[in-house]
């Protein structure tokens, strides 16, 4: 008989965050033309396209780590109930990602966006990534989000709990959607 799963409030919150991110991204991009989508306020700044492409590239590297951790956690029977305890270092990284940014981080080379990606492709890939994140969240239901550890996609030296991994992912997405919104709010943003 399969074990009964208890809904996890932590995962429910991450799911709500992704749904909100999807809504905000759609509102941000739905009426943009190509020029607006690729416009940069300054040469060294990212466009809306680059903010979303950065999230797509990050998620392509991050999601397999989450998926493997969920699979291994399930195979090892690492289930649990809230509240989960998470490490201080992981909590620090989650807080540091929240918008508006209090400190800047240089994106690793593998996460750097392309500047010339077609609007439809970037937006469609972003939507696909959000569904994949939601699928991971559902797959983690019933697992012990504090005991299962994941490596950072940037460095294998940094490990955090699965729960922190989900929280970091959603905070990172909020950060770059906020950044993209600042581009759109710029007084020099091209008119439609």
The CATH superfamily is identified as dinb family like domain
Distance between the termini: 58 Å
Order of helices and strands: HHHHHEEH
Strand content: under 5%
Helical/strand content category: mainly alpha
Assigned CATH architecture: Up-down Bundle
Shape: elongated
- Largest pleated sheet: 2 strands, antiparallel
CATH class: Mainly Alpha
Describe the fold and architecture.
This protein has six helices and two strands; from the N terminus they run αααααββα. By secondary structure, the protein is mainly alpha-helical. The protein has a two-stranded antiparallel sheet with strand order 1-2. The longest helix is centred in the N-terminal third of the chain and has 28 residues, at 48-75.
Secondary structure layout:
Layout: H1 9-29, H2 34-38, H3 48-75, H4 88-97, H5 119-139, E1 149-151, E2 159-161, H6 162-185
Antiparallel strand pairs: 1-2
Helix pairs in contact: 1-5, 1-6, 3-5, 3-6, 4-6
Question: What characteristics describe this protein?
Answer:
192 residues, mainly alpha, Four Helix Bundle (Hemerythrin (Met), subunit A), two-stranded antiparallel ribbon, 6 helices, 2 strands, elongated
